[in-house]
Write a structure and sequence with these properties.
The chain has 316 residues and is α/β, with parallel strands linked by helices. The protein is 48% helix and 14% strand.
Length: 316
């Protein structure tokens, strides 16, 4: 099969027929064999009924329906599990990604031999204050931390070699960092293509300000897991030694001061206790969060999702 198109969605009943028709027109017009996998992330509208109707009229249209909402990462992960195309393309269901980009995104994988290609929505139609400015800052930080030179990490329009999506695991909210996951899996030839960003035609955005906070938290999380996930003692041992030596040095200092001047006592100074307590609490919270991330990553149920229905999906 030439191309598999994975489309996660939540309450997009209005856009699905038009989007489906557009994709079919593009891929069939280019003589490509294809499958379209819609992953309904627990929609509360009639999205699944629309997918059923579309699938009944075209055997290449398939569907997965979650019993409840799990998030975009879960939807992509389940979609990646079932695809069989040589090239896998992801796009959003809100009609802001243009299916006309599909042939070129596929060509860059097949002919230019990229492992993955990420879209770059250079010209955007989102609200500048609430989306564009935070997005630019977020992408700048991601480039600095990951050393991957992409302008738009979170663009939903991407293409991959099938081997890439079968080699990575997308969980939590790590869909923002699929380029990072791909690089750490050994797929280092990552390209970028400027793509069209279209105005939203139906419905309203499902994301708010919290996605930027979550994005930075996920960035910190994925960097620590990548570097120390297999050797946590390198982190905890170093921090433990550092804090132990600092504490021991402080005790020695207090003892010396007490010997020199028995009337002088630093322990009666409240700021000293406040600073020490703050450092301890902060360290405990950070390490507890990191330990929780390690536990979640190694939990056998981290990517177990309740699937209500499937359409046209072969059980493997």
């Amino acid at each position: 099969m030439d191309v598999s198109i994975v489309i996660p969605l939540l309450n997009e009943e209005e856009s699905l027929p038009e989007l489906s028709d557009w994709i079919v027109r593009v891929v069939e017009g280019n003589g490509l064999s294809y499958e379209i996998v819609f992953v309904d992330d627990g929609s509360s509208d009639n999205s699944w009924k629309v997918i059923e109707k579309l699938s009944s009229g075209n055997k290449n249209i398939k569907g997965i329906r979650f019993q409840r909402n799990y998030g975009k990462s879960a939807a992509l992960n389940e979609g990646f599990r079932v695809v069989s195309g040589d090239v896998v393309i992801t796009m959003d269901a809100d009609m802001q990604d243009s299916p006309d980009e599909i042939p070129e995104l596929r060509r860059m994988i097949i002919e230019d031999h990229f492992d993955m290609v990420s879209g770059w929505k250079k010209k955007r139609y989102d609200n500048t204050f609430t989306k564009n400015i935070p997005s630019k800052f977020f992408n700048w930080a991601a480039r600095r931390v990951t050393k991957i030179r992409l302008h738009d990490f979170n663009c939903g329009l991407k293409s991959y070699k099938r081997k890439v999506v079968k080699s990575i695991e997308v969980y939590g909210e790590m869909h923002r960092y699929i380029p990072v996951l791909s690089k750490w899996a050994g797929f280092r030839k990552i390209g970028e293509k400027e793509v069209e960003h279209r105005k939203r035609k139906y419905g309203e955005t499902k994301f708010g300000w919290e996605r930027f906070i979550n994005g930075f938290l996920d960035l910190i999380s994925i960097m620590f897991v990548s570097k120390y996930g297999k050797r946590p003692m390198h982190l905890f041992g170093w921090l433990g030694t550092l804090f132990f030596l600092a504490g021991f040095g402080l005790i020695v200092y207090l003892v010396v001061i007490k010997i020199i001047d028995s009337s002088n006592s630093l322990t009666n100074r409240p700021p000293f206790y406040i600073a020490l307590a703050t450092m301890i609490i902060g360290t405990q919270l950070f390490m507890a969060g990191f330990l929780g991330e390690l536990i979640a990553r190694n939990s056998p149920g981290r990517n177990f999702y309740l699937i209500d229905k499937k359409l046209g999906i072969d059980e493997k």
